[in-house]
Amino acid sequence: MRRSAGAAALSAATPASFTMRGAALVLVLVLVQMVPATAVCPAQCLCNHTALTVSCQSGRLEHFPIQLNPRVQRLDLAGNRITRLHGSIDYYTGLVSLNLSSNAVERLDALTFEHQRLLQDLDLASNRLELVARGSLAGLRRLRRLSLADNRLVRLDDGALGEADHLQRLDLSGNRLRALGGALSGLARLQALSIGSNRLTRVRAAELRALTDLRQLGLCHNGLQTLEGAEQLPELRWLDLSGNRLTTLPDLSALTKLSHLDVSANRLSTLAAAAPSTLRWLDLSANRLSRLRAADLAGLPHLRQLRLCDSAQLREVAADALSGCPQLHTLQLCNNSRLARLPDRLLVATLRRVSVRDCRLSALPAPAAAADLSWLDARGNQLSCNCSLRWLQEAVAAGRAADLRCAGPGSVSGRRLSLLATAELWCPPPPAPLALSLGLPLLVLALLGGAFCALCRRRRSHRTATAGVCVATLAQSHGTKGAAAAAGGGREWPRYWPCEVGAPAPHGTGKLHTAASVWAPRPVSAEPRLVLSADSVRGYSSDEQYSTSIFSCTDQPALALRPCRPTGRETRSARPPTGADQRQPPSQPP
Predict the structure, then answer these.
(1) Where does the pLDDT of residue 272 fall: very low under 50, low under 70, confident under 90, or very high at 90 and above?
(2) Contacting residues for 353 by C-beta, under 8 A, at least 6 apart
(3) If both were cysteines, with which of 221, 268, 471, 534 could 287 make a disulfide (CB 3.0 to 4.6 Å apart)?
């Protein structure tokens, strides 16, 4: 009864306002019970108890916080001074994502993540880890992404990473690894692996054997001279081999799904190895290529983007270099300091984006489909702004090309192409072809030469005819026996020399009284010639077909059909006698 009386008294004594305040207090107590008593958000953090996220980035924390909501799912502690994790992380069994990058964590103890069975994303980049021991990742059965980049790792225990057997993305770049060993065994679900900027000189086939589902492989900036075991990666689509020491391309023909290949900053001087025909993106920049030929890009029907920049030795790009790439969309030939010329047919019709910035070009050929270009950058060259660049001026005006300054000619040097009037983009008339410029003078010379030769031939024929008559006359005057004796061969010469031409003259009307040059053809190649002088006939042999000699016509009866004409002393070759010239004279002189 005392209890009932007290309650009744209290009820009677409590005013209405007190009843309202009590209801509010009850509501507050209920709300407080919904949040654990230990859930305190530090001043350096931002806590969202509804989304169950906490961010303590760059909060200068030196220890892993333990006063946070134990049900937190996403915890960001990047940029602090945390050195150890063991024990502290056990309070948060509901974590899905944990970012501990840019701290000072020096080691991962065994079973550190034993209670993080829901964790999918773990970022430990930019810490001070030197070793990942076996058991360090035990318990992370749902882990999908792990970053250990930019640590001090020199060794990975065999199977250390395989304990996270659902891992899909792994970043080991920026460490000091010299070998992979068996650290990757058990990662059959791994799809992306980055091991760039380490100290690898070789990747053995056995180290990649377990990665049957790998689709992206980054091996940039190591010391690789070759790549083994690529054929064991049938699903590979993206391969980065840039910044190594490759002198030849590895054989990648077995990678029938590869679409992205970066081999820039190597030591390639040729592109002899076969690349898979599935390539869509290729970077050949910063190598030792001196020329790009059609054979270098043959068999790449699906290539869409080609980059060949920063190649100090590149001097030539063949006109048909892109003929094997019928789907090429983007071409980058930037910063090639020795590239001074592009052939006219290089920029094929499929191109939409072109960069030839910072080369040594003095001219730029118009693309096959200039109107279809979406962007062209030719700045930093030595272009001469003339009529050949009117298409580029139109592209600049349409916003499809970068404006540039002209390097010449003098009247427009240093001015922007977009500000030039159309009349200022002119070309001098082309010079006449060499054949046309020399044709008329040569034709005149040929006609003059022909006329001169015809005149000489006519005079020669006349002199030869006269000389033949004189030879026949002297031969008969001295007798055939005397001529034969003078020849010294005991032969009897024909009574008439076989060169008698000319019309008959009245018998006995003329006398030989002048000096003439005799043109004496040889009867046969082995026979001596007749050289007639004033008083005798003598013979001699020679390898020349014709020769001349001087004789004086004496005051003999004129047996010739025509007397000798005075010609003076001459020495020249004569044409061989024709058949008409070699006819036999009559047995008796007229």
Answers:
(1) confident
(2) 329, 330, 331, 373, 374, 375, 376
(3) 268
**Number of continuous H segments (helices) and E segments (strands) in the chain:** 6, 24
User: Minimal CA–CA distance to 321: which of 292, 354, 281, 279?
Assistant: 292
CA distance 68 to 71: 8
CA angle, residues 267, 285, 379, in degrees to nearest 5: 145
Cis amide bond preceding 343, omega within 30:
no
Q: How confident is the model at residue 511 (pLDDT cuts 50, 70, 90)?
A: very low
Structure tokens at 244: 């190594």
Q: Which amino acid is at 54?
A: V
* Helix pair angle (480-487, 434-478), 10° resolution: 110
User: How is residue 440 annotated by DSSP?
Assistant: H
In one-letter notation, the amino acid at residue 154 is V
Distances (CA, A) of 109 to 112, 208, 341: 5, 27, 61
Angle at alpha carbon of residue 414, lines to 408 and 419, rounded to 5°: 100
Please state the separation of Cα 136 from the chain's center in Å. 49
Mean pLDDT of the region 249-259: 93
Shortest CA distance to 362 belongs to which of 343, 344, 346, 340?
Answer: 340
The label of the residue with tokens 């209890």 reads 3
Residue 147: is it exposed, middle or buried by C-beta count within 10 angstroms (0-12/13-18/19+)? buried
107-to-62, 110, 369 alpha-carbon distances in Å = 15, 10, 60
Please name every residue paired with 122 in a beta bridge, in sequence order, or none if there are none: 98, 146
Closest CA to 549 of 523, 518, 577: 518
DSSP 433: P
Asked whether the predicted pLDDT for residue 267 surpasses 50, the reply is yes
d(CA 580, CA 193): 100
Whole-number Å distance between alpha carbons of 26 and 457: 141
Q: Which two tokens stand for residue 364?
A: 């730029």
How far apart CA 194 and CA 217 sit, in angstroms, is 6
Over residues 243-263, mean pLDDT: 95
Q: So what's the pLDDT on residue 460?
A: 61
Q: What are phi and psi of 247, to 5 degrees?
A: -100, -20
Sign of CA dihedral 264, 266, 272, 274: negative
CB 305 within 8 A of CB 279: no
Q: What kind of architecture, by CATH, is found in domain 36-199?
A: Alpha-Beta Horseshoe (3.80)
pLDDT band at 198 (very low <50, low <70, confident <90, very high): very high
Residue 193 contacts residue 218 (beta carbons within 8 Å): yes
Domain ranges of the chain: 36-199, 459-575
From the number of C-beta atoms within 10 Å of its C-beta (0-12, 13-18, 19+), residue 172 rates as: buried
In a 3-state reduction of DSSP, which class is residue 457?
A: helix
Separation between Cα atoms, residue 176 and residue 470, nearest integer Å: 111
